[in-house]
Design a protein that fits this description.
2 domains, 17 helices, mainly alpha, about 75% helix, transmembrane, about 375 residues, single chain, globular
Length: about 375
């Protein structure tokens, strides 16, 4: 991203280009400047500071009013959309929406261990895997029939099936980019966060109404509610045992993020959608970081205090990234999409909820 000085230099060359042409002097093209680390930091810090400030405000509002922090970060960011149109903040906003986002997704791996997943037993693991994959397949199948792209179907299905806003951001980072990509990501995050909050309220009541056992209720809540925070809230509102089971099941869904995102990038490369010419791509660095942290944490090399701090850092990175993504999108663009994308995500939510509930009732 060009600095203000770079822009001024370009403007000066453009101003005198006509004089050079009249006198037969060839146009001077300055050699490309390799940006140093310090130069990059100077270019991005205004936008990053703004995104972090919005993240701080969103966190404060979330703690005081009990609403999802991602939703606050997104809406506040969209209110500052003008900062992304021009000026010194543009480079930092782009940096926060990409590099900071990938860092946050990678650090999610510190929340998961193989022991937690294996402690669930084979049946819950199978239920969760089928639920996640079938939800993505449903989105892929239904989206074109509602006038949306297959990419949006994968994005919405992955967000609903895996871990809400975090999955939406991770999947969006490997999907092909077009003029609607950021708008679709924003819409997915807003809708999936709102539905996750609704599920957090309704699903514990449904579990009590149906007389589910503690194990059944934990698998149901962890296998259906979209965001980790809402799963924790719903599970522990019933009992500590249900909360523990729901959290472990949810972490299994989070653990599926890396293989699913990698599978998407492989399919896109084979189809040539990203210019891969059929070659299997290297896994993105943030997915390798995610997998490495899961492995290291599973071996017990990460102390509890360190793991808690890294998990907190991951949350801050994701909220900062969603604030930056909000600044890149206008309310007008989001409202222009109509009801069909929302209907798709509601249908995906009903699908995974109904599937997991029936599987729990008849197999656990």
């Amino acid at each position: 991203m060009a600095s203000d000085l770079d822009k001024d230099t370009a403007a000066a060359h453009a101003m005198f280009r006509s004089f050079d042409g009249m006198e037969g002097v060839p146009e001077f093209v300055p050699p490309p400047q390799k940006r140093t680390l310090l130069g990059t930091a100077r270019a991005v810090y205004p936008g990053v500071v703004v995104a972090l400030t919005i993240a701080l405000a969103a966190t404060w509002l979330s703690q005081h009013y009990g609403a999802p922090v991602m939703l606050f970060g997104l809406l506040l960011g969209m209110a500052f959309h003008f900062l992304h149109e021009e000026g010194r903040c543009v480079a930092g906003i782009e940096f926060a929406s990409k590099a900071v986002l990938r860092t946050g997704v990678a650090l999610l791996g510190v929340r998961v261990t193989a022991e937690q997943i294996m402690s669930l037993g084979p049946q819950p693991i199978l239920i969760v895997m089928i639920g996640v994959l079938s939800t993505i397949a449903l989105g892929l199948f239904v989206a074109p029939r509602l006038g949306r792209s297959k990419a949006f179907g994968v994005l919405s299905g992955g967000a609903v099936g895996i871990c809400g806003a975090s999955a939406a951001l991770a999947i969006a980072s490997v999907l092909p980019r077009d003029k609607d990509s950021e708008r679709d990501t924003i819409l997915t995050v807003v809708t999936v966060t709102a539905m996750s909050t609704v599920c957090m309220i309704l699903y514990p009541l449904l579990a009590a109404r149906l007389g589910l056992s503690q194990n059944q209720a934990g698998v149901f809540l962890g296998g259906t509610i979209h965001d980790v925070a809402q799963v924790v809230g719903a599970g522990y509102s019933i009992s500590p045992a249900v909360g523990d089971t729901a959290t472990y099941v949810k972490l299994l869904r989070v653990a599926m993020l890396a293989p699913v995102v990698f599978a998407i990038s492989v399919v896109l490369a084979r189809s040539g959608a990203q210019g891969g010419k059929g070659k299997i791509p290297m896994p993105p660095l943030f997915l390798l970081g995610f997998a490495a942290l899961v492995a290291i944490n599973s071996m017990g090399f990460i102390p509890h205090a360190v793991g808690k701090s890294v998990s907190s850092l991951s949350s801050w990175c994701l909220v900062t990234a969603i604030a930056a993504l909000g600044m890149k999108t206008s309310f007008k663009d989001v409202f222009a999409v109509g009801w069909r994308p929302i209907a798709l995500m509601v249908g995906e939510t009903v699908w995974i909820g109904g599937f997991v509930l029936l599987a729990v009732l008849f197999s656990l």
